[in-house]
Task: structure prediction
Amino acid sequence: MFDINDDTKGGYRRIELLTGPGRRRRWSAEEKAQIVAETLAPGARVSEVARRWDLSPQQVFGWRRAARMDGTRVRAGTPSASGSASPPFVPLVAAAASTPASLPPSAPAGIEIRIAGAVVRAAPGTDAEHLATVLRAVRRSASPS
Result:
C-alpha cells in the first residue's frame, strides 16, 4: 500500500531546469511582415512556414488577418510591409452600361450562364428553383461518371 510519505523516502528526484528565452517572444513588425510574405508566396504552406519559424500556424494566420485588416500590402518574397504590391483581388468597379442599339431601352437584361460547355439563358422573373434544377442537370451531365 502506498503512503503519502513514500515520496520523502526515495532520496533525490530529477529536476528539469529550462534555460534560454522565455516562451513569450516579441516579434518586430519587419519580422512579422517577412513571415507573412513567405506565406503569400505561390505554393507556400502556412504550416511549413510556421514550423520553420517555430510558431503555431494560428499565430501566423492571425498576423495575416491583421495585415489584411490594417490594409498593409505585403509582397510575396519581400520583408517590407510597406511595398506597393497589387491586391490579390481586383476591386469591382461599377460603370454605366450602355444599352445596345438592337434592343429597346425598356427591355430588361437577362442572365447568361456558361457551365460545362453549355449556355443557359435566364430571363428576368425566371423561377429560381427551376433554374437551379437546370444548372444541376447540366453540371451532372458534364461530370464523368
